Amino acid sequence: MGSEDGGGGFTSASVEALLSPFARSLAPPTSLSPLPFDLNAGVPDRESLPAAALAEAARAALLEDPGGALTYGGAQGFEPLRAWIAERHATETGQPVTSAEVTITTGSAHAIDNIAATFVGPGDVVIVGAPSYPGAIRTFRARGARLVDVPQDDDGLRVDALKATLAALRTAGTPAKLLYVVSNYDNPSGSTLPEARRRALVDVARRHRVLVIEDDAYTGIDLDGPPLPSLSEIGGGEGVLRVGSFSKIVATGLRVGWIVGERPLIDRLVFMRFDNGSSPFVQRTLLHYLRSGAHEPHLVRLQSIYRERRDVSAAGLRECCEPYVTFRPPAGGFFHWLRLRPGLDAAAVTAAAARQGVAVTPGTGYFANGGGEDRVRLVYSALPPPALREAIARFGRALEEVAGVR
Ligand SMILES: Cc1ncc(COP(=O)(O)O)c(C=O)c1O
Predict the structure, then answer these.
(1) Alpha-carbon distance 128 to 182, whole Å?
(2) Which ligand 1 atom lies nearest to the CA of residue 111?
(3) Which of 62, 118, 325, 337 could share a disulfide with 189, CB 3.0–4.6 Å?
(4) Which domains does the chain have, with CATH numbers?
């Protein structure tokens, strides 16, 4: 297989010809870097993974009900875990949500795809932020969406621009169907939508009958106090699909996410799944872990780890990079979103950083329709403080090189 000599296998050219038009148009995903200092991949700290508590939980899940853990568990997910998520959502929002309004997915990446598969047809308009999470951009695009972007500033999606965009789309006869937004600690911008913007966003989405997808992947990594009311809460549980994940608060390798929303929407999402459901073994293990008493202290520990890393990296950036970058430290999550001084280009800065052994991500990968040449995303979650300091000092030298100072 894979030979280029005209044998029986597929060549890269013949695979290219086989691709769907959507797959052909996709940008590659960001990945782990082989460089010594990886400030590129938005991954959690490896040392703090709760492996021992999960091992105990896995054993308990298997002993309690081996048949339940090791056979198909249904498309909507393990009911007691859905009930746990519903209860937590109800406590946070005051909405009386039940397990029927929750569906479990294989991570929140799958949740976004489940939503796109269910509601997006070729040419349907999906609104995303400029910038936006590339995984969502790829997923919507792969399902045939036409992506229309709305600018973001330091406070997240600009709702004045959203209003104008929705009105223009309606006038053009192509009203938007979905609006995708990360209201807490956005990837990549790190921004958090202020409450007034949340209210205005929910209001305008409702008036235009646009379904809001609130991606809450980083909620829980709250570094400056508890999060603001979610869009789902502000909407009174209507018009918003709230997507969550255990990836950042427990472990990315679990691949457990969820969607909370109105019952008719959830029923359709469940109906659309052809994958025999997410792993019952992992869901049961996770529930044992969540009930064990280990989770709450773990979350507090994670917050203190990431708070220190955010602060160490912000101090390093101010000390070593400030003449060349400006930024606002985020209130949670994993990312600094740097604005480069005029004249500095993200591709050149990324290449110079690589020569210093540091991987960062150029801003251009985060825009559905172009932009980001003056931006760089820097991940502070993955490296411990000494390595983070060293990486940022090296990044400062890369900036000096591109600015012509070295
Ligand atoms: C904004 C956002 N949403 C969703 C995801 C997907 O995460 P997972 O599928 O692990 O829940 C990520 C991953 O980095 C993300 O940054």
Answers:
(1) 10
(2) 9
(3) 337
(4) 18-50+297-403 (3.90.1150.10), 75-275 (3.40.640.10)
DSSP 296: H
User: What pLDDT does residue 159 have?
Assistant: 98
- Angle at 39 (CA atoms; ends 217, 393), nearest 5 degrees: 140
Which residue, judged by its Cα, is nearest atom 2 of ligand 1? 217
- Which helix or strand (DSSP H or E) is residue 128 part of? strand 125-130
Residue corresponding to tokens 């990312």: 335
Confidence band for 5, pLDDT divided at 50, 70 and 90 = low
DSSP at 308: H
The alpha-carbon radius of gyration of the chain (Å, integer) is 22
Ligand 1 pocket: which of 49, 133, 213, 259 to mutate (most atoms <8 Å of CB)?
133
Residue with tokens 């148009």: 25
Best CA proximity match to 137, nearest among 275, 235, 7, 26: 26
Q: For 376-402, write each residue's pLDDT tens digit.
A: 999 999 999 999 999 999 999 999 999
* Omega within 30 of 0 (cis) for the link into 80: no
CA 144, CA 121: separation in Å to the nearest integer?
A: 6
Give 2's pLDDT tier (boundaries 50, 70, 90).
Answer: very low
Q: Does residue 111's CB lie within 6 angstroms of at least one atom of ligand 1?
A: no
Q: How far is the CA of 172 from the centre of ligand 1 (A)?
A: 33
Tell me, what's the pLDDT at 23?
Answer: 82
